[in-house]
Amino acid sequence: MLNLGILISGRGSNMEYILKAISKKKIPINPAIVISNKHDAKGLKVAQKLGVKIEVIENKECKSRVEYDKKIISVLSKHGVTQKNGLVCLAGFMRIISPEFVKKYKNRIINIHPALLPAFPGLHSQKQALEYGAKYSGCTVHFVDAGIDTGPVIIQAVVKVKEDDTEETLSKRILKEEHKIYPEAVNLFARRRIKVLGRKTIIS
Predict the structure, then answer these.
(1) Which of 47, 145, 148, 149 is the right S-S partner for 52, CB 3.0 to 4.6 Å?
(2) pLDDT tens across 31-80, in order?
(3) What is the spatial distance between Cα 156 and Cα 185, in angstroms, rounded to a whole number?
């Protein structure tokens, strides 16, 4: 069975939905460790309640991104989340991970983004969609590469943009879809049903 490591910075709502799906035996993966870069991240208590080990590596502990990521990799490896037998999920992790980290865990790091990539990458995607006048937005689970929200797409969910939407109302509806498709993507990976061919993913 694969080992799962989840990286968070805040409330970890996507983390919670993934861990609950695992606890209900819906995903055949071992939730090995949750790591946060903030000691007061609310998601840490959630993970503990669900019986998952936690560790905190504060940003200020390291002088560089590479040094920080080496610490992350060390903790992941200690808990069996390796490049051969692991999956790393970014769940509201507010750091840009280094190319060295990405290379070590090639096609084993996934993230969720609140837009239909490649549209509206980066921060404040919902605001970007509203300002652009998009009729539809949504969310995307994708593999992480060296770019910002540029890795191969695994799953997407579409959300219709309403005329009276605000950034907050649109974000709430998108988040509901995130909670559905992120566990689904982890399940597909755990069951080895995802194959990456260049920029495309093939789901069997």
Answers:
(1) 47
(2) 999 999 999 999 999 999 999 999 999 999 898 999 999 999 999 999 99
(3) 10
Q: Which phi and psi (to 5°) does residue 196 adopt?
A: -100, 125
How many domains is the chain built from? 2
E-state strands within 28-114: 29-36, 54-56, 86-90, 109-113
Residue ending a domain, among 106, 128, 154, is 106
Query: Hey, is 120 helix, strand or coil?
Result: coil
Residues 6+ apart with CB under 8 A from 156: 116, 117, 138, 139, 140, 141, 181
What's the N-to-C CA distance of the chain in angstroms? 19
Which CATH number covers residue 131? 3.40.50.170
Range of the domain at 68: 1-106
What does the pLDDT look like over 125-174, one tens digit per residue?
A: 999 999 999 999 999 999 999 999 999 999 999 999 999 999 999 999 99
Residue pair 104/73 in contact by the 8 Å Cβ criterion: yes
- Does residue 154 share a domain with residue 85? no
Annotated catalytic residue 142: no
Residue 162 and residue 95 share a domain? no
* Residue of 79, 113, 142, 179 marked active site: 113
